Amino acid sequence: MTAFVENHTFGIQIALFLFILCFFWILESISLSQSLKDKYLHTLVNAKFLIFVIPIQIILAVILLSVSAKTVTYSFGLLYHLPIEKNGVTYYLIAFLLIDFFNFIYHYLMHKIPLGWRFHQVHHSDMDVDISTTFREHPGETFFRVTFFIITVFVLGISPWIIILFQLMESTSNLISHSKIKLPENIDRFVSLIFVTPNSHSIHHHYKLPHTDANYGDILSIWDHIFKTASRLNQKKIVYGIDTHMNPVYNANFKLLIKRPFRSKKKSPLVNGAVKNTLILIFIFSIQGFYAQKTLGNTIKDSTVIETDLNVNDFSVIIINHIKAAELSSV
């Protein structure tokens, strides 16, 4: 049995993932009022991310397992320096807790570091969170996530077996936590003290702060309670999405979502207008200064100034009136 698991690890993970995905997808379709067509189209948008995510995941997984094997060969990593029996129950428990804690840190950083949030917000942009939201991940974030996990494995000294067991539990937890099937509130109040639940994670997907920056847990929710990042919200008040990107058409367009992290921030029309008008006024005042110096030499004895048909002051008034008219037309 052990030999079979070792030789078919990847296949077992995929089979388990697909089984849980299909089970909850069908359960959501039966128990909720959403039409089958709408659910299919929504799932299709999220499934498109797998086209890019899976190749990156596989390539980095090879590096991950290679690093893991090296830590075992050379007994490198924090776990090898703890006074506990290797491969015992305590060893696996501590390894599980440490990996989950590092995943909590990773999730927190993806929200707090601007570059990380540019990619992670694609996941949060789903305005109809369901089990398919689990694989709505920008390939750029996949690179960050697996790279961070490789560093975690290197620092802690995680063996391949622990990685396999943890990822089986993590995949299961992530699928269930994004499900629309919620626990009764009186049960969730206790379960969510230890584990991430569909109820607690749906709060994390609420469109507005401070709830978006809360409930960072991966499998365990204990870290949120320890570090005061846990949050509760009535499920009926939850609105999915991000308050800065609430266009449902945009958030359902795969091509635009892939491009979103790379879009430069555009200045608002008001800022552009203010800069333009400031430059025009500087130009006017420069002309006035030059004209004042020029006319000073043309002043006659009775202190009167020879005037042209249209002097610079008149020109300034025309330009300023033009600016005002443009501002009024843009309102």
Explain this structure:
It is a single chain. The chain has 2 domains: 2-262, no CATH class; 269-330. It has 331 residues and is mainly alpha-helical. The chain has helices at 2-7, 9-31, 36-47, 50-73, 89-112, 114-124, 139-156, 160-177, 185-191, 198-204, 222-226, 254-259, 269-296, 312-330. The chain contains 14 helices and no strands. The radius of gyration is 30 Å and the shape is globular.
For this entry, give a set of tags.
mainly alpha, 331 residues, 14 helices
Summarize the structure.
The chain has 14 helices and no strands. The chain is mostly helical. It starts with a helix and ends with a helix.
Provide the fold topology.
Elements: H1 2-7, H2 9-31, H3 36-47, H4 50-73, H5 89-112, H6 114-124, H7 139-156, H8 160-177, H9 185-191, H10 198-204, H11 222-226, H12 254-259, H13 269-296, H14 312-330
Helix pairs in contact: 2-8, 4-7, 5-6, 5-7, 13-14
